[in-house]
Amino acid sequence: MRIEVAKLRPSLPGVLRGVLFTFLLLSSAAVLYATGLNARTAKTLAESSLESTALALSTSTESALRAGWNQAEGEIRDILSDRVVAYALIAGKDGTVLFHSNAELVGTKLQDAGLADWLRSGKTYGRRVSLGTGLPAYEFNYLLHGPGGKIEILRLVLHTTQADRIISDARKMWWTVGAVLLLLWAVGVVLERVLTRHLRLQAEVDRRERLALIGQMTATLAHEIRNALGSIKGYTQWVDEKVEEADPRKNALAIVLQGTERIESLVNDLLLFSREESYSVEPVDPTPLFKETVAEAASGWAGEVEMETVPGTRAMADPDKLRRILLNGVRNAVQAMGERGVLKITARPEGLRLVIRIEDTGPGIPAVELPRLFTPFHTTKTDGTGLGLAYSKKVTEGMKGVIGLSNREEGGAVLAIHLPIAGEG
Ligand SMILES: Nc1ncnc2c1ncn2[C@@H]1O[C@H](COP(=O)(O)OP(=O)(O)OP(=O)(O)O)[C@@H](O)[C@H]1O
Ligand SMILES: [Mg+2]
Prior knowledge:
By secondary structure, this protein is α+β, with helices and mostly antiparallel strands. It contains 8 helices and 12 strands. Helix 1 (about 10-65) runs antiparallel to helix 4 (about 160-240), helix 6 (about 285-295) crosses helix 7 and helix 7 (about 320-335) runs antiparallel to helix 8. The two termini are about 45 Å apart. It binds adenosine-5'-triphosphate (ATP) and magnesium ion.
């Protein structure tokens, strides 16, 4: 009997996680792009403000110079004493300094290697330089057209503090943006964790509610079936007693009785699985239980049986429930092995647990079966109910234990039941 539970729910946490991280990625990319753009604009703005200041000072100097050098010197000195100017000089085409903010340097010669080339190109240009003090500055070179078309060189060196402030303010934005993005991602990750946990818990609650409902329905149905079955079985037995041994109908009655017994055992399993359990937990010695269950579930089996327990170690369990778990485990192992094999049952203390293992040398469990072994009604046997392991899990957990069925490395399967160990005495 195999019941496949349809997957009604798409992977909701997966979809949400995708949406959340796509949102975070897109918003981070947008913020980074905007900040980058802002930084680039700030740099361009700073450079053009330096250039336009230099150009304004240069044209003022040029128009003052048109009045003739002697009349203009005072005015030029005034223009070039602006606080943004670090120093300024005017030189002849041969590089001789005719005017300098520092009067001591008048008469010296410019040492620029590319001076002649620049004069030939005749183009105004500005560049970033460092002052002797190490401070950054902006050097602007301009060709002055003096009276009579005489060409002279005007060099303005400007302080860049104001302009650089714009750039450094834009750079500071990176830190702010970095911190905000970090916070955004941290919130995103926390949100994802909380959401996933919430959805997992919700799914677990839904599952439990569904199982509880199925349990109630099953119990009601099973009671009704058992009552009806009682009458069928009773009357069949009554008729059977009345029918002569030689009567051919005797055979048919035996088949009906067999059928009712099979249904009865199925209904009993169902009732056992769906009922609300109560536990009377006590220290249980596994040795006699092992012997009992092997005698019941593996009697007449031709394989080898090995048992191993540590004297004096006991598990805290409900003996009746543990007996049912072991019975199903041994039955499963023997059924898996067929006629021959080695059945090994051990109980070993491991920390605060007593671990009971039922090992077999059967074919083991195919990978596809592993996730649904403990699902109620899952069976690969033609006469199985598929409730053995589901019941075992329910009551093991009810006794504060853990149960697992897995493949052994050397072949075959192992059912491991971890139960709390009983204290000394
Ligand atoms: N030792 C084992 N080796 C291989 N497969 C196993 C073993 N034990 C369990 N299984 C697989 O797990 C399935 C479920 O086992 P479970 O005991 O729950 O039900 P069942 O034995 O099929 O029926 P039921 O126990 O209700 O009569 C089995 O049908 C079988 O396919
Ligand atoms: Mg079974």
